[in-house]
Amino acid sequence: MESYSAGCVKTNIMNKENDPRPPRWAERLLGWYCKPALLEDLQGDLHEFFLRNCKSKGVRVARLTYVIDVLKFFRLYTIRKPEFLNLLIHWIMLGSYIKTSGRSIVRNKLFSAINIIGLSISMSVGLLVIAMISDLLSYDRFHANGERIFRVNTHHTDHLNRKLDLASTSVATGKKIQENFTGVEAATVLRRGFAGDAWFGDNVLSVEGLWADHRFFDIFSFDILHGDGRTALDNPYSLVLTETSARKLFGESDVVGKTMKLFSSSDTSDYTVTAVLRDVPKFSHIQFEAIGSFTTKEIIEKDNAGFGGWESVWMNYVYVLLPENGSLSAIQESLDKLCAEQNKTVERKSIALSLQSINDIAMGPDLSNPIGPTIMNIVIYVLAGLAFIVILSACFNYTNLSIARSLRRSKEVGIRKVIGAHRSHVAWQFITESVIISVAALVFAFGIFMFLRPQFLNLAPDFLKIVQLDLSGPVVAYFLLFAIFVGIVAGILPALFFARINAIQVLKNATAVKVFRKVTLRKALIVVQYTVSLMFIASTLIGFKQYKHFLAFDLGFTTANVLNIKLQRNKADVVMKKLSEIKDIEMMSRSQMVTSVGSYWGAHMRYSDPNDSINVWYNTIDENYLPLHGHKLIAGRNFTPKVSTHEESEVIVNEQVLKALNIAGHDAQKAIGEVVTLEKKKLQIVGVMKDFHYGKVDSSIEPVIFRYSNEPDGFINAKVLSDDLPATLDAIERKWKKVDRVHPLSATFYDDQIEEAYSQFSVMSKVIGFLAFLAVVISSIGLFGMVVFTTETRLKEISIRKVLGASEGVLIFVLSRGFLLLLLTAGVIALPLTYLFFEKVVLSEIVYHAPISVFDMIAAVMIILVVALMMIGSQTLKAAKTNPAQVLKAE
Amino acid sequence: MKGTNLGEFEELVLLTIAGLVSDAYSVAICDELEKYTGRSVKLGVVHAVLNRLEEKGLVKSKMGEATSVRGGKRKRYYSVTSAGKASMLKAKELRDQLWSLIPQVALKRIS
After folding, report:
1. Integer distance in angstroms from the first to the last C-alpha of chain B?
2. Is residue B3 part of a domain?
């Protein structure tokens, strides 16, 4: 019946080719959704109306009406019901599908192996991403009211119109919300920087945590083991401990009411423990060992006018709890109003506030001043995207090999169709087969995943803090769903291809199947695979070179053999005196911070114009710092030693300062003796130094100054010249123990610190390098499969050529020509793309980047070519060497 | 059963099918109804009603011969079944009975 009516349509089209026709897609849509029983009549009716409308209203209107009518006929009684019988047949046939699929997998061991290997190694990366996303999504789910908790984020715009998005906000915001806002059930203010050494008797414990006000436990659901959460943080000098820290300090967990002494950088006081909590869950974005009551902090900071100010948005966090059915937009409106009001009180900057659900924080956008470590959501997206590309590449292998080998399966499909299989049955059969393969691959992928997991977690210190990649019921379910999805993606094209095979043609003459009609598709897939592989390899090479470039970069001073020892609130003089007994330490200096590794200390500096202040980065140093680090002075002199009571009076600036403040016409010699104002102090420029990289080398050099203090309290910089480094470090550690028995020594070589500062690049190149490796392996085994297949099918041709006198070299050329052409095409596409991507997107962000060398690009191509040539060469050589008599005899 | 009672539009469609005799297919029914009722009749509505009548067993249908006029698609011709005839008659009877109940005087009084 179907073919009969189809024939009619065809003759009609041929007869009246110039007749107007309704839109093709609308006709198809109707055919797709409409019940077969109603379809023909409906099509006819609509067509009749269409022709009528053509005459009366014109073709355009008629076509539009047709489309509208087709959409209007989409009703309950017209739509096709899923055919129960069909589903039943699928179910009954499932056994047969599995059986034939199993046989086919076993029969073609090589191709099955290629598919399973490719899918499993690519899927292992997918599993990693799934486990990671699953971890991030399970963050902060333990709060009973999690759906109603929101954090107030700040959007800060400074006087130079630079925008900064912060997770932190001001104390003032929290107070205003608590006092004035309606529609908020509770709000709490948190502050970073609660840290110090807690003493109880002779026990000492270094604790880190937060300051939090009395509403903390009204909002968050941390388990309270002892004490009362409602009153725990009411009074000054109250302290909430976690179980572990309580046990460490007191030896037991029920310690409510006990007091301990806390030494911190700002004060020393007795605190009373008011509550003990179960340890903070790993998947909480707020982490702490102890919480001090916020009222304490307010007492400590009572003389600091800026503490509660609208502008100090850097250290505090405000969380609000909405009432049930509360309106987010109403609060946002109130926040906007608050900002408009308060922004009038500050000059040349503006602050905006917004709300972020606590459930979105772990995988949210990148915000500065996070309360704990976070992974940027962009990192996850990029990782997922790259994993997807690699998996797709493995799916291409499956598609390619299945279609290429369709000749062998087509008879089976033909017979199935003759017996009565519908198109959809055949399609399902092949989807089932690919799903079986992908589930088999999942088993191997899981093994690889377990192996990769520790490697990945140790890749970056932050990963270990943030994710666990543990297996749980849902995660395993996701894995399985993922495998099924991959199977469907891999199998969809072969399934459609087989479903369309014409049974009569196949059974009459198997070679009649137009396998090679799909050649362009297959070629395209190979080119895509190799393009991806090449881009990965080139990116790895470029990225790694960039990383090396950063490490070897001339910062403008020497870092070799400099050991930076963190003072940890010890007296510098005492430590230095002890250390000076070690003969391998050649020289020592003191500094407030370590430059060039991504830390910044900023201040505002003014010259003659009182209104024109600039932001300068500074480091406070002693008189030995400059010579020890080999900073070069262009003019003037180093600091001279002064007594500790001496008022700060001198400053050394870099060339950028002269430019930015326009001092003495940028002339270094003349600038000596000029006076600048810094934090209301008048300082005389005693020296001008050559520019050096205070920040990281991905940003440009900005104005930097050195200030003098004979006891900066951050670090001791020790120049170590030793033949036996471990012994020297051991000696340093022993000396340290004598001074400070509480804190372990924290000493790192400057070069190692720099390496760590650029670790993101090393992590990036490792991850991309690994993916590149996978991509190359996958595309290579795919190519290998294709080569094996082609040489097998062309064996007879090769034999005849050989009999007619072709040499082995010629044969290899003939066989590999096509593949090489594909590889070259991939190269032509991939290299310019990679180059443009790095040149325009990645490296343009980095000020002092290494140039992209043509060598890297060529190296990438060479790597691919060598691997591919080995694949092609081995197989073609095998084919070329076969005895033609053996092959031709078989006919 | 959904009830053998006829809706107003269903009755009209049924009558039209009976009236058109051997030429009763959807578009013709549509046109005929438009002609007599004077209101615009949507094809979709007619289709839905035909579908419902067939479900109720009041009409039956068969496919006609293919012609070149409808894009080669065959028409579905409808005819009234005996059940359809019965319910048509029943509807008419009901109306007649009700009419007969109305006293002439009362009718005249309504202006």
Report:
1. 41
2. no
- Please indicate if any CB of chain A lies within 8 Å of the CB of B27: yes
B73 touches chain A (CB under 8 A): yes
Minimum Cα–Cα distance from A17: chain B residue: B71
Q: What is the DSSP letter of A647?
A: P
User: Residue A397 to residues A524, A777, A787, A812, B77: CA-CA distances in angstroms?
Assistant: 12, 11, 12, 23, 54
Looking at beta carbons, which residues of chain B come within 8 Å of A77?
48, 51
Residues A321 and A279 in one domain: yes
More reliable by pLDDT, A274 or A29:
A274
Chain A closest CA to B107's CA: distance in Å? 43
Structure tokens at A838: 């790095």
Mean residue pLDDT of chain A comes to 86
CB contact under 8 Å between B71 and A49, yes or no, is no
Quote the pTM value: 0.74
Pairwise CB contact (< 8 Å): A12 & B68? yes
Distance of CA A350 to the CA centre of its chain: 31
User: What is the per-residue pLDDT for A182?
Assistant: 86
Q: Which amino acid is at A260?
A: M
B26 and A45: CB-CB below 8 Å? yes
For residues A419 and A507, give the distance between their C-alpha atoms in angstroms, rounded to a whole number.
12
Range of the domain at B74: 8-109
Check CB contact under 8 Å for B70 and A45: yes
Q: Examine residue B2 and state whether it is found in any structural domain, yes or no.
A: no
Please count the residue pairs, one from chain A and one from chain B, whose beta carbons lie less than 8 angstroms apart.
60
Q: Is B29 contained in some domain?
A: yes
Q: What is the CATH number of the domain that holds B97?
A: 1.10.10.10
User: Strand, helix or coil at A312?
Assistant: coil
Q: Which residues of A touch B73 (CB under 8 A)?
A: 5, 40-41, 43-44, 47
CA distance B62 to B48: 17
SS3 of residue A169 by DSSP: strand
What is the distance between the terminal CA atoms of chain A, rounded to a whole angstrom? 44
CA angle at residue A617 from A611 to A620, to 5 degrees?
115
**A346 and A442 fall within a common domain:** no
pLDDT digits (tens, 9 = 90+) for A640-687: 888 777 788 899 999 888 888 888 888 888 889 889 988 788 889 999
Type of residue found at A53: N
Q: What is the ipTM for the molecules in this complex? A: 0.86
Count structural domains, chain A: 4
- How many angstroms separate the most distant Cα atoms in chain A? 108
Q: Are A168 and A300 within one domain?
A: yes
B68 vs A contacts (CB less than 8 Å): 12, 15-16
Look at residues A890, A879, A862 and name the one whose alpha carbon lies nearest to residue A801. A879
A109 lies in some domain: no
Q: How many helices and strands (H and E) does chain A possess?
A: 30, 22
Q: DSSP readout, A399-453?
A: HHHHHHTHHHHHHHHHHHHHHT--HHHHHHHHHHHHHHHHHHHHHHHHHHHHHHH
Q: What is the pLDDT of residues A458-495, one digit of tens each?
A: 887 777 888 888 888 889 999 999 999 999 999 998 89
Q: Which two tokens stand for residue B105?
A: 């005087």
Q: By CA distance, what is A68's nearest residue in B?
A: B44
A799 and A845 share a domain?
yes
The tokens of A234 are what?
């009411």
Q: Which residue has the higher pLDDT, A888 or A340?
A: A340
Nearest CA distance, B62 vs chain A (angstrom)? 10
| A491/A575 same-domain check | no
B33 is a domain residue: yes
The Cβ of residue B21 has, within 10 Å, a number of other Cβ atoms equal to 10
pLDDT at residue B25 above 70? yes
Rounded-to-integer distance, Cα A817 and Cα A518, Å: 19
Residue A196 CA to residue A271 CA, distance in Å, equals 12
> Residue A404 phi/psi, 5° resolution?
-60, -35
CB atoms within 10 A of CB A277: 25
Count the domains in chain B. Answer: 1
In A368-450, beta strands by DSSP E: none
